[in-house]
Amino acid sequence: MDDIEFPVVSDDDSVFPRNISDSVCPVCHKRKLGEGNETAYIHGGALLLEESSDGVEKANLTESLEGFLFFDWNGSNNASADFELALNVKKGQFSINFCSTTCLRKFLNSCVDKLEENIELVNNA
Ligand SMILES: [Zn+2]
Fold first, then answer.
1. What residues make up the domain containing 31?
2. Which residue, 32, 72, 78, 103, is the most exposed by fewest CB within 10 angstroms?
3. What's the total number of domains in the chain?
4. Domain contains 4
């Protein structure tokens, strides 16, 4: 998974891989993604709660939000390490797609590996 650059989603690029219907899984590079294909995905972000004229609160997409998802670590010596999986995503929502839960699990494990690499850099600085 060394070919994946982080953050995988940022700014106006809220879907990873970017053109999902023409993409294969970013982990196994074998199975197609997109409509009609099995997909396991991380879908995150925020919605703006607004009260409508009838007094009911509704959650809406808005240009006023930016989404993020960080992996963070704090050491007992006040050291810290992190990396961004999603950064400054416009409209606040993003999705990160894989062909299966197996590939999703491998990706999440690689995220923890990357965090541990950054922790090691901090601890050896
Ligand atoms: Zn896959």
1. 9-123
2. 78
3. 1
4. no
Q: 83 alpha carbon to ligand 1 midpoint, in Å? A: 23
pLDDT digit string, tens, across residues 14-58: 999 999 888 999 999 999 998 899 999 999 999 999 998 999 999
Q: How far is the CA of 9 from the centre of ligand 1 (A)?
A: 18
Quick check: 48 and 56 in contact, CB under 8 A? no
> How many CA atoms lie less than 13 Å away from 4 in the CB half-sphere?
25
Residue 112 alpha carbon to ligand 1 centre in Å? 18
109 CA to middle of ligand 1, Å?
14
